[in-house]
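[Solved] Which block belongs to which protein?

Original post:
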Amino acid sequence: MRFMTAKEIRETWLRFFNERGHTIEQSASLIPQNDPTLLWINAGVAPLKKYFDGSETPKSPRITNVQKCIRTNDIDNVGRTARHHTFFEMMGNFSIGNYFKVEAIEFGFELLTGKDYFDIPLDKLYMTYYPDDSLTKETWLRLGVKENHLIPNENNFWEIGDGPSGPDTEIFFDRGESYDKRGVELIEHDIENERYIEIWNIVFSQYNAKSGVDRKDYQELPNKNIDTGAGLERFACVLQGTKTNFETDLFLPIIQKIEKMSGVKYEGQMAFKVIADHIRTLVMTISDGALLSNEGRGYVLRRILRRAVKYGLVLGFEKPFLYQLIDTVIDIMKPFYKQIEQTRNIVEKVIYKEEEKFFETIREGEKHLLNSIVDHRIDGEVAFKLYDTYGFPIELTLEYAEEHNVTVDVDGFNEALKEQKMRSRLARKETASMKSQEEAFLNFIEKSEFIGYNELTSESTIIAVFDDAIVLDKTPFYATSGGQVKDQGTIAGYQVLDVTKMPHGQFLHKLESHDLNVGDVVLAIVDEDSREKTMINHSATHLLHQALKDVLGNHSHQQGSEVSAHNMRFDFNHFDAITDNELLRIEGIVNEHIEKAHNVDITYMPIDEAKKLGAQALFGEKYGDIVRVVNMGNYSIELCGGTHVKNTKDIKKYAITSFESIGSGIFRIEGVGGQNIEEAMRDYMKNLYNDVETLIDKVKRIESKDVPFNFIETPRLIGSYQDIINLRNYLETLKQNVKAYEKDLNERLSRDFLKNIDTYIPKNPSKKIILELPDVEQNILKQAIDVIYDKIKAEVVFIISKSTEKATYLCKTDGNTNASELVKLLASKTKGSGGGKPTLAQGGTKELALISEGVKALKEVL
């Protein structure tokens, strides 16, 4: 058997099938392109669906590939077993209506055992097959496989619901008795083991499965296909003779780097395996344009990164470390995936920033842990909170406990974890229950037509009444969907409060209380002004989406939106901070395409044709076979069911009115299109204007007269995000001016007050003195007490300064009397607070009426 590197295994596979007439299909991105039904590419055949379903014709009916894949359904097993991975590479060969069973098996036999290829001894190979598939058995026997190496298995039949299905044959490599003394019974009874490794599965798609029909009665497909999958990591394990996949050249350099960084020996530890697996996944997915976020694939990646960091804690890492493994992963993968070299910087930025944030969370968790130790024990609920809120694996909590010589209630932790899983199951059931509509809605199948793309009024007939809601045979009202809110207007004079879609697609109109009945003919009128503004904002949203990609990169995807007559809101992902200049560029690009006066062309076409045009589809949205495509001058092309202007010039102008971060890596832009942008900007900047007024009023109150210095003139509005920048800068300058003014004023008041300090000191004062002073700033009081103390060579000076709302008191002593105790005494008598050092202390209260009684108590003590 020939030793081969992972690079050589890939090359051998592709060369073998290419020599036999197969076109080499390059690995597709891990992010499905224009396929909103998939979260990730999860199998070698996934990007080839277009060929198998007939929507596209391949260059050749014979295809081979090595495809990047992601599967996270078994993430908790990664690191526990020898062969579970979140990222893996699937080698495959495919026939679309060309060769079939015999040739596919012959190819497999030759590639595995041929001297010029993998050169695996035949006696090391075992094959399973479907019992009724005699041709597969006969073909393997003819090629020289011994009968006792052929194992019939009822599970060797591939089918997922109705449609193409067929038997398959799985190929196993026997690693020998040292891994398990038991023999083929392990395969026969599908027992998890380390001896027999499945390395290849060949599926013969030859039947049309149909529910209610016995498998033996399935009809043969007119065109039969071959679909195969062989895991590169498993092949590497076999051909490199390693105990697990993690010792192959795909993982070992990463593990060795972790050893070097941590100072801990590998020795098969789970933490090393988890980190090595997960950093590969992060590098490959981010390189393909994925980002971390709180939903969809971004949430999956965040979970993967945090799981890796958790196991890094077990190895002693206390600050970001994953980003230091990126170069090693790239060095391993770049010989085959050359493009990852170009994304090195963005991958490093994304991973480092996410790690940094998570380590901050972990540090908070450490504080919580140390504060939660009671009677030398960490409660199970506390251990669970550390796991659930702060990301601490129980192993880490146990490690902390050992360091601090305390115990952990592991049983309580497990019980809390079990309860959480139970709550999750109940929540899923409850959510499913909430989503189900009333039976009446589900049973209502009468057709209703939406005519609102072209008509804003309609004489319609009521075909159903559900309490305060009605359904019309035809309606001009748009129902809330795809981010666009419902239309405003009236039906038969009644205000339309809401419009939603029913289970079978009809539009349900919720009205204020009414006396309408089925069969009534009513006039439905959509508010024209509201619809026009909504169309303007929706079309502007499409331009914004593309402008974001132009400025930030194609990785930036929509995460949510809401479009109404009032404004538009757009949520999107990005890995880095976004500057004002970038926002101005984005806004500028939108306005540039408004000025270009693109026609907004709306066409209906098959979804595959729309994908070829490059139309953007949103993950999670469900699309039919025929889709509505909104094309704005070939600049922005999206699948969309909403209402739009006829030409981008109808938007007139667009301005970003606010920008904020709403989560890790998720940002929100709000904006508005139309004619009266300046008015809208003024409305959106109310808070900033209020801050300006507050500052000016503050200065006026201090001086009780006009502001004693010239404020800059409030910036003139131009109807752009620049307005917000200008007003923000103006406010900042204003704050600095006010701060400087307050400082100058305080210095002036301080000089005046201290100059006249003698007027507050009685003639022949005692060495222990209590004085009441006017309402002045605390820093002036501190200066005053020093001056008085020195002037009268006092033993105790206690001063009280009262305003209309509160009293502040300070005490300074020579040390023979405790200043802190005196302040606390007055605080106790006045329901206040205070304290400090034995020679200097301060306090305060809002209970002014109690001051005189408190002073009496002080005098008694002094």
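(Second protein starts here: sequence line, then its structure tokens.)
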Amino acid sequence: MMKRLYLILILLALGYSLMALEITAFRTEELSRFLGGSSPYETASQLSSRGVEIYYYNELSMICGLNPQLNQDYSELNSTRIPSPSRSERLYLVTKLPDRELPTGLDIVLDLGSSVLIRSTLNEEALTRQIVHPFVVFDLAPMKFNRSEAVPSATLQETRTSILQMTQAVSADSVLAFIQALQNFQTRYALADNRLAVATWIKNQFLRFGISNAELFPFTWNNTDQYNVVATIPGTVNPDEYIIVGGHHDSITGTTPYQFAPGADDNASGSVAALEMARVMMATGFQPKCSIRFMTFAAEEFGLWGAKAYANHAEANDLQIRLMVNHDMIANSNENPATWRVRLMPYEGSMPQSDYAVQQTEEFTTLNAVFGSANSASSDSYPFWQKGYPVIYFFEYEFCPYYHSDLDITANLNPTYCAEVIRASIASTAGYSMMPATPQNVELVDAGNGNQLIISWNPSTDTDISYYNVYYFTQGNPAIGPFPVTDNSYTVSGLTEGVEYTLQVASVDAVGTESYRISRTGTPQVIPAMPTEFNETPILGGIGLDWAPNTEADFAGYILYRSLVPGQIGSPAHTGMLTEPTYTDTNVNSQDGYYYYTVIALDLSGNPSPYSATVSSRPITLDRGVLIIDETKNFTTENLFQIPDQAADDFYLACLGDLPSQQLDLESFEPLLRLADIGVYSSILWHGNDASEMDYVNIVKDQLKAYVAAGGDILFSVIAPSLVTPNAGNDPFSSACMGFTGVDYSTAARFKYANSAAPGIPSLSVDPLKAPASMNGHIFRVEGMIPAAGANTLLTFGSDYGDQQTQGQLNGLPVGLHKQYGEGEVVTLSFPLYYMMQDQATALVQHVFTNIFGESTDNNDPGLSPTPMLSLSTAYPNPFGQTTSFSISSKDSSSPVNIGIYNLRGQLVKTILNDLLTTKTSLLSWDGRDDLGRACATGIYFIRAKQGTDQSSRKLVLMK
């Protein structure tokens, strides 16, 4: 039976990588030394700013996604390559538990110290039956990084009074009653039928306290409706800033969770923290300056799905989350109350928040706060941390011995201890909520004199803010300050040239409450900093260049140098001085080869910065003919899907005939293919004739997409497009450019014919000399493609077998598609032309490149066979911006000649001539305007000449 497989499945079934990015784990300490980061957070943030995707990190390891080129930058470091999971597999991050060994038989990919990364074919529900440990699906979502902040070191008296009032109102009896009420549901298992009833009961408690906006936040997991609960006390000054306070309300056991999963400690206690804090704040009339949003999360035990859903919602809606406070298992303690301890689970990037929680805990409770393992993926704080939000996570010091069992009941917990943890949380939350709004758009610039840094921020619209405090320090030293400022900038003087400083600014309200501090780092220098993040972008007829702006206070401008020789600086590419970090070089062509650019910054005294890194590029000109790109792996002997390099080269050169072409072998081309490498060519013939490492298209698809959008044309002839572009259903390159959204495939199907399905397209058959004798003139691994909207079928699958036979089950499905994207055209063949008859393959290639792509030799045209009666010259200049000229020659002086300019849709734009030629050769021109005198848009056009039955055509590129 034929199986419909989307592209990802084929790739996985054949055991090839799914991703353009390579999942790589580095040792955090070694990576930090290599990059000069002072902490794992800074190291991860640096990597993220360089285009590396960070999926998880702790003090031992950092798991990253890098493209092969970036991976080369870190090749000298010790690393572990993590193979991408197959479609039937998942990666899970599993947290280790005290006194609970991981079961044998787990496929552990990486040991991270406090957790392990495993590979499994089990879904979440099945995994809970195999392990009791907390886990989360490792979904390869890149982490977000926000700048680290510092928190005030003291709480002012007015806020202290409110906090003391609230901590005294927290009741162990109330806590116990809430926990018992949740336990009375018998189960809160996420797949049990009572999950809506549980969430509704929690919502009703918030309503009972007087929070009238309490509501459910529904989401879907595992084809079930799940419900978070949300209730918000609005802020009096900053209502659009939120502190999220919560814990999950679902429970689980390893026995009969559908019937009984009491979950008193795990995690009725955490949900009750939100309930009790809301009750107390409403009862005492507490009015926070920012909004406090109480939440309980669903489906945590299956991988934090409720918290994930809300963190995604917050990111998508740009919610301003000041802090997320999480509670998970906070009711177990057998210690003497005099020595009670609570564990704060710290997160890199949120250490100031955890430090603040320690401060508040020790000031307002009897608890001793200690830190647990960092960056825990075991609870609902984790998805918020992944999104870059600051988090605090409260967790009991003594791990509950009744975890995930029928004995996790109120009789076995300590409500007095739980109430004390809630007091610590209410003190932290209230203190944080009373801070004024932080300064916005904080920037740090170098004064340029070697001893000053200038920190600035936007003036606050918050009338509650009276002034700002500025601090500064060097690494490992205490902060100097505060320096009170009523303006919106401050200059720190007396600094040492070349030393890195951290400057901080905080808002201060009328009663002296300080916001948390926003930090920026900088180094005072006399000369400007070297321009960084230097990028090149080929455009039609030019090269766009940009770099990160210099921020020195005495910055004057830039000089951009250009050379035709690598390793040489060359001369300025412009006159005068550039004042913006961008330049478009249009004094370029395709004949000079690559251009090499270097930029420096200058200050007002004329001091130059060091030279930037050099970038090379070429413009998009589309005037150098056809580029043959060989992705086929080079073999020395010939078998099916294993071809000697020279044999493949000769075959495709023969297909192009007299069309001007050049070859590029990806086996020997370093580094990755760029738009600058291909943009000078009008068309590309991309062939891949083996099933080995056919992921190069996927790696460089953004470059290819830009090439086609600009007017370049590509013919892909590859084995299994699913090897080329995995995830086609969600990949705009596959659907928008290559023309397919998926494939039909069977390993038993046999392919012999590519049957014409469009006018002018020749049919092809497999060369019997290249097919295995056992397959009766057929080959396999040819897929039927599922056309995307707007794609035209050119060829269909054919065999000598009937449609009902296993070998013929793909008969009639598309194996050749044509799709237009932007200004360009793409033809995708799901079979390698190399295995077809040479003359038939040549006929197809000639038709595609002349009739569809508009390529021509000196005297041919893109629509018909060449004729000596009518000849149209190459236009010059081409590309052009104002006017281009060309000549027309004809041996027939008695018949009128019609010459017009047409766009890619075949529409007449401008009539150039419709008359007899007065001379054998006439020189004509076009000024880039249509018949109404309107300027035409930048793009691809064709000159088409017709005289009787004779026709000729040339491609033009108009640039404005």
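Accepted answer:
You had them paired correctly. Confirming on the second one: The longest strand covers residues 238-248.
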